[in-house]
Amino acid sequence: MIQEIAFTAYAVTDMARSRAFYEGVLGLKPSAQFNPTNSPNWIEYDLGQGTFAIGCSPEWPPSEVGAAIAFEVADFDAIITALKKASVPFKGEPGSYPTCSMAVILDPDKNKVLIHKRK
Questions:
Q1: HSE-CB of 31 using CA atoms within 13 angstroms
Q2: Which 3 state secondary structure label does DSSP give 91?
Q3: What is the full DSSP assignment across 97-119?
Q4: Which residues have a Cβ under 8 Å from the Cβ of 30 and sit 6 or more positions away?
């Protein structure tokens, strides 16, 4: 029986570029790094009760039509302003809905990342 989500992971093609985005632009802090072949090909970020990871492997290509992760933020307007200032690509304009505010951005490999704020 499934008990919980262990982690969510995205495939990336360039670990340094992806770390610059997730750590430099989005402000995530690494919690674990695995280097089975002396190359930084798996990084984890603990976020609340969950874990988000990025991994780089020739056998695991990114897909912009795959799943998406939603990051809950404290100040939706502030992060949207910062993302636009950093020239992060958006898929449409941020929206306000009955239960949340949300925007879809793209990471350097065109993985969808949702910026989310519950109302």
A1: 12
A2: coil
A3: -SSEEEEEEE-TT--EEEEEEE-
A4: 19, 23, 43, 44, 45
Smallest CA-to-CA distance from 68 within 19, 8, 16, 13 is with 8
pTM of the model: 0.83
> Are the C-beta atoms of residues 111 and 62 closer than 8 Å to each other?
yes
User: Which contiguous run of DSSP H or E holds residue 76?
Assistant: helix 76-85
Question: 44 has which bridge partners?
Answer: 32, 53
Domains belonging to the chain, first-starting first, are 8-118 (3.10.180.10)
Largest CA distance in the chain: 48
Distance of CA 34 to the CA centre of its chain: 18
pLDDT of 34-68, one tens digit each?
Answer: 766 655 588 999 999 899 999 988 878 888 777 88
